[in-house]
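Hey, I'm writing a tutorial for new members on how sequence and structure tokens pair up, and I'd like a real worked example in the thread rather than a made-up one. If someone can provide the structure for the chain below, I'll link this post from the tutorial.
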Amino acid sequence: MTPHPKRIGFLSFGHWGRAQGSRVQTGRDALLQGIELAVAAEEIGIDGAFFRVHHFARQQAAPFPLLSAIAARTSRIEMGTGVIDMRYENPLYMAEEAAATDLISGGRLQLGISRGSPEPALNGAAAFGYVPADGEDPAAMARRHTELFRHAIAGHGVAQADPSYAGGGTGLLPVQPTAPGLPERIWWGAGTRKTAVWAAEQGMNLMSSTLLTEDTGVPFDQLQAEQIRLYREAWAAAGHGFEPRVSVSRSVLPVVDDEDRHYFGLRAQVDGRDQVGMLDGALSRFGRSYIGEPDALAGELAKDAAVQAADTLMLTVPNQLGVEYNAKLLDNVARHIAPALGWEAAR
């Protein structure tokens, strides 16, 4: 099987608020600017537009209206999430929304899901009506929701037919509509090597961010590259019938003019190295940011073991600086950095 060529997408956290300097003041701003940035990214040749999903926060909480709007305004670019917290989801309703969005896009939806990350709410999933069953923890509940969601989008029956209203039919009915190919475009956001192996066994693509909730003392990119290697080995052993995709996220901020230096010049001194700390009770390693002259960043990213091992690079963007600035940032990456990684602009 032929591996995918190198792809580059942007990942927006979708923040909005009236902080000083923010060009994204309201939730409406965040949604409309997300659409406009996806349109601009497609024109530049970028391959994907992805959005972080968080509840009870000034970020994107309901991704499918946004992704559908992007699908209707574009013709080539992929759109997706990074990631949906499955603790909060009604699996069958989500299956309907995902299929409808994928059909609008013509098969361009790339849906990142996971067991979830820390949220502002103390027990937010319970407020949505979802609590673990006896003997379950929240992670197990998220995986149960995931199993039913994937069962549904594969077109399997999930609800008993009522012969009185189904023309005398019996048996299990699938949700409608269905979207051919969507089951192969589900990604699992894995924060450890163990969960990456599990994702491979389940037949999901791998989405790995700038954070791993474990630390072995080696640099972040090497730990993440090991995660990818273990994932690919587990995938090969499972014998799935298609080639998986693997993405990693990086903060890449080329400094090419005074505006860039104003925003990020000082950050290069602080964020240019890995960080280790506690997150949600686990010792975690956070990846560095890449800030500086484009030629230098191209060389540094070419040495990043995980970037080289992945087929898709997600660029986290400072969305509160607005569409115009982020389109310029993506264009600078596309022109001056990405070609050194083996990427070519989409036509």
